[in-house]
Amino acid sequence: MRLKQEDTLLNNNTNNLYMSEIPVDKQKLAAPIKSVVDKFQLLPEFLKVRGLVKQHLDSFNYFVNTGIKKVVSANDRIVSYIDPGIYLRFKDVRIGNPSMTTYEKINPHTCRLADMTYAAPIFADIEYMQESHGQRTRLEKKNVVMGRMPIMLRSCRCVLYGKDEAELARLGECPLDPGGYFIIKGAEKMIPIREQLAKNRIIIDADNKGNITASVTSISETIKSQTVIQMDKEKIYLLLNQFVKKIPIMVVMKALGMESDQEECAHIGIYTQEQALAYLDTKVQYSLERGAFLILRDIFLVNVPVRCNNFRPKCLYVAVMLRRMMEATLNKHAIDDKDYVGNKHLELSGQLISLLFEDLFKKTIKKVGDNIDKALAAISRSRALDPSRLLCELDIISEGLKWTLSTGNLPTNRFRMQSKGVTQTLGRMSFIGTLGFMTKVSQQFDKSRKVSGPRALHPSQWGMLCPCDTPEGEGCGLDKNLALMTHVTTDEDEGPLISLVCRKCGLIGYYSHKLKTGFCSSCKIGENVSSMKLPYACKLLIQELQSMNIVPCLKLVER
Fold first, then answer.
1. With the C-alpha atoms ordered 362, 90, 157, 495, is the resulting torsion angle positive or negative?
2. Are 368 and 385 in contact (CB under 8 A)?
3. 38 by DSSP, 3-state: which?
4. Residue-level pLDDT at 91
């Protein structure tokens, strides 16, 4: 045994000495890639650093660290209707480590063998008002368990996060397993990427009769709506579900505060904003006080916020929609292609979990509020009214998350929708098949329809979606897979990048390790190079323009 150890040490020292003697051509490493063969050599290193399921992990990590706090902070207070003095307020929320109970830790391998759910407790810091025999006391509690959250393997809350191969083998896990899935009742469940039309984006299209329409699927933190502006017989109307019939668009513009144009609505006697709102009140589907005003403020184009009842931003947004419709009338090429990748949105697992958690959390706080009112309405109470106890007794969040991930059904009251097939059982027939499951992109389209448009291979999919990997049968062209080097951005904001820009020519420079300073390749000097913070999206835009032989120049202004 001692001889083997000595031989091993000798071999390691020899290898280290040999590696130190190998000359490294730094200029070749820093040189731009000229051929596809050279670029293919970067693929193994890219997969080692990034992997194929990073988009799932980043999306879930964003929800765990940021998204869940936003959901709770938007609905952080429970107030009794009978006595507004009795309340419960959420001060903070966080997700703990995976455990069987509150503190007994578990690992994924144990959950697979014991048919358990790999989940972690959701802790909340709360403040509430307790009542006992007519006396009220304001109390605070920390680490109150309000439910259990299933944890994605290899995420930042997983016990496998940051482990090396030896530690993974000790926990019974394969070092090559990419993660990105859940363990629900012993079964491995994954949420495939769903392809949808982009939200909060103007889409210009033509209906079956050739009428030009501009539609926007608006979504905010509280509501989702669809706004359609249609051109019919050289007249433009607004189509909204809250109105019983289509509304002339100029009436809507006057109701939003634009009163300068007098001729368009003169034939129906509308000249002012009050007259336009009164006209819209007669067209509201449900009779409400100031119904038209509330619809225009809270439902119509909800992606454009209204502050201090100022509708001017919505007026400008509608004007942009009308202008694009006019352009499409004169030029048919201005009509948007719905199959274009830029008009699509990939919904990741973290976004679906956030949507489901928000719906379950609202059900929980509503149930707690109802229980508080029932306790206050009781004639006699044997013990003090403790809202924190009512919160801990409910198990809506845990059971709802477990049921959705187990069955694949996603019912959400927020958008009044029922989705099926949200989750799938992870296939383990082969390692390549497992990776294919993790990069699968499914389209929300009826597969029984014999339509060739959504199934066809679009030129904009080049480099983003695999042109070959698609199933046979009714799912052909609808179920796709991401390309190997596709990068899917998540909700997390990218931090600004430090870029070097030449003050003289405006081109982006680079850092010269030889000169130990910034250098401009156009001016051939480094004296005029300054550093600036550049958003990541702006840097991507500049690179896309450069790939089309368009060299943008930046103009720097000192502040």
1. positive
2. no
3. helix
4. 92
Q: Which domains does the chain have, with CATH numbers?
A: 54-191+348-419 (3.90.1100.10), 209-342 (3.90.1110.10), 439-487 (no CATH), 497-547 (3.90.1800.10)
Amino acid at position 174, single letter: C
Model confidence at 224, pLDDT cuts 50, 70, 90, reads: confident
* Lookup: tokens for 411: 């019912």
CA nearest to 481, candidates 437, 431, 533, 517? 437
Q: Please report which confidence band the pLDDT of residue 4 belongs to, taking 50, 70 and 90 as the band edges.
A: very low
Residue 321 CA to residue 213 CA, distance in Å, equals 9
Nearest to 439 by CA among 460, 472, 462, 470: 470
**Letter for the amino acid at 215?**
S
Note the pLDDT tens digit of each residue in 183-222: 999 999 999 999 888 888 899 998 888 889 999 988 876 7
pLDDT in tens, 258-308: 766 655 566 667 778 888 888 888 888 776 667 788 888 888 888 888 888
Phi, psi of 178 (to 5 degrees): -80, -20
**With bands split at pLDDT 50, 70 and 90, how would you rate the model's confidence at 23?**
very low
The C-alpha R_g of the chain, in whole angstroms, comes to 29
Structural tokens at position 525: 């000097």
Candidates 423, 394, 385; CA nearest to 122 is 394
Q: Which of 320, 41, 63 is nearest to 182 (CA)?
A: 63
The answer to whether the CB of 71 falls within 8 A of the CB of 358 is yes
Is pLDDT at 496 greater than 80 in this prediction? no
Phi, psi dihedrals of residue 8, rounded to the nearest 5°: -65, -45
Answer yes or no: is pLDDT of 381 > 70. no
DSSP structural state of residue 201: -
Range 521-539 average pLDDT: 75
Helix (H, G, I), strand (E, B) or coil at 307: strand
Contact 300/314 with Cβ under 8 angstroms? yes
Q: How far is CA 525 from the centre of its chain?
A: 43
The label of the residue with tokens 């009512």 reads: 390
Q: Which residues partner with 206 through β-bridges?
A: 212
How many CB atoms neighbour CB 179 within 10 A? Answer: 20
**Rounded CA separation 146/165 (Å):** 35
DSSP state of 198: P
pLDDT for the residue numbered 18: 34
Describe the chain by its helix, strand, coil percentages, rounded to 5. Answer: 35, 25, 40
Average pLDDT along the chain: 82
Relative to beta strand 440-443, strand 479-481 is: antiparallel
User: What six digits make up the tokens of 358?
Assistant: 């928000």
